[in-house]
Input
Amino acid sequence: MEDDPADLLVQALAEPVATPVERDWSFRRNDHEGGFNRYGWNDYDQQLLEACWDDEATELAEGLISNYGAMWPWPMPRAVAARHPRLSQAVLDLAIRRLIGQRHTYADHPDAVSELALMYGSFDRLRRDHDWPDPVTLECRVCAARFSEAVISPWMIRQYGPPRYCASCCVRARNGLGYEDDGALLRAIRILAAAIDGIPSQNIHQTISIAGLDPERRDRAMVGLIVGPHPALPLLQRAGIVGEAWRPARGTYCFAADGHPCRSLAERVVDDWLASRSIAHTLEPTYPGSNKRADWLLADGTFIEYAGMMGDADYRARMEEKRRLAGAAGVRLVILLPEDLVDLSRVLGPLVSA
Ligand SMILES: [Zn+2]
Output
């Protein structure tokens, strides 16, 4: 280790943190409710959902189970939207026609109803013939507190990967402490830059997903995020991460192993995955009949997008438009989510070995 961050943490962990209210976010196989408000989701809803279900949907859920254990239904709606558009559209149609989920508080919001359907419907479907472990107790790799992985909420999993850090430390990483001590800040930003092997962006605390890094790098990135320098350009320059003349051209944030410019850590994880398997790829292909661009183009004509903000309605609408463009042109489009970074082989492997 070039710089042991333990002493930085001692100081950071002594600061008070607004601990999130603890609740159980897990879906236990034997718990009928799954611990949540089902908004009256019932057998009739379930039958209609299962009429649209297929093996592909089961496989999707199995992949999530292997990475997220008892939390798997949370990423399911986004995974279906990205990976299984037929099912996504079929469920949305049922919601628009108000045939399912009509005891939901927002029964007239098809988005909300179809999200509910894909969470509870998938949960009820899978637990009939699948099993997964109940949440276990872990030791936080930052502060050493013991915690149940069930209290790690969906946004924490999206940003920091499968449960490894307690909820308090996730909140610390999200907020950043912002030390007064200049030396501590400079050290922290160097640790963060080294862990992500890139240039921390201004809004890194809100946008980064470190889920695709190996555990030790994740641990160091967490320290950098918790100590919390807000990486304005002068700080990056003083830390020696960028030169005086550096400008974030086109949002370039770092370079992948093959020299491709990337706008985020997530993009670099994907690019490196492709390069390390000698899969030829070029950047920013244009959708036929449009000036919109995807992130990558593979040699067989497949487009790949990394969609980091599907929680944002405008962003999601732009992604749907791209899907429509691809569909109209007969282009195969793969949309990757933060949840996929931890296991790209599952999503991209079948595609590139075919
Ligand atoms: Zn902790």
Remarks:
- The longest strand covers residues 303-306.
- The radius of gyration is 21 Å.
